[in-house]
Write a structure and sequence with these properties.
The protein has 189 residues and is an all-alpha fold. Helices cover 65% and strands 0% of the residues. It is built from 12 helices and no strands. The chain starts with a helix and ends with a helix.
């Protein structure tokens, strides 16, 4: 498992699911569970890196607009949603979160969150070991498992951020949000 296979699995499952999030998650879990335990753990570690790297203020402003408010848990689920859309949308959003407006998103969606993406590796791992109810084994193995530093560098080095990706904003001040993500505000506010 490497970053390219990570994104390939996400993109393939998204396309095969005909862009339906719930169906995508089931397909992704099924595909991932066919890999070795170590490869599934790698997928989980790669996901953690991408999720952590996308923990940026301006992206949170975009989530706030799309979800009509966004708590810390919501923002974690939003980043899962963004990663589940694929490599290009993810990378574009880190440069300019307003680029999310260009995604083919059904406007009638109530929330732009994918909490299931956060646990895909765990569910695939448990399916692999044949115990869907076992929570401890996956987390014990994840605590013990580390990616090679070169692999981590290779993942992080490819990520680019917009200059103002950590710009401050105030959820009570719509203008501060509008300045950061004007296209999303125009469409969703």
């Amino acid at each position: 498992m490497d970053k390219n296979k990570f994104w390939e699995l996400i993109q393939t499952s998204y396309k095969e699911a005909n862009w339906e999030t719930d169906k995508q998650m089931q397909l992704l879990i099924g595909k991932l569970s066919e890999y070795s335990q170590e490869e599934i753990l790698k997928f989980g570690k790669i996901y953690e890196i991408y999720a952590k790297e996308s923990e940026k203020s301006k992206l949170w402003a975009a989530a706030h607009v799309l979800n009509d408010g966004c708590s810390e848990d919501c923002f974690e689920s939003f980043r899962g949603w963004l990663i589940s859309r694929g490599k290009e949308p993810y990378f574009n959003a880190l440069i300019n979160p307003d680029s999310i407006i260009d995604l083919d998103m059904p406007y009638q969606d109530d929330y732009y969150e994918n909490k299931d993406m956060i646990s895909v590796a765990e569910l695939a791992f448990n399916k692999k070991i044949g115990n869907d109810d076992d929570l401890d084994t996956y987390y014990q193995r994840m605590r013990q498992f580390e990616l090679d530093p070169k692999e981590i560098f290779d993942i992080v080095d490819e990520i680019s951020f917009g200059e103002d990706i950590n710009a401050e904003w105030d959820k009570k001040d719509k203008e501060s949000v509008r300045t950061l993500v004007p296209k999303l505000c125009q469409q969703y506010w």
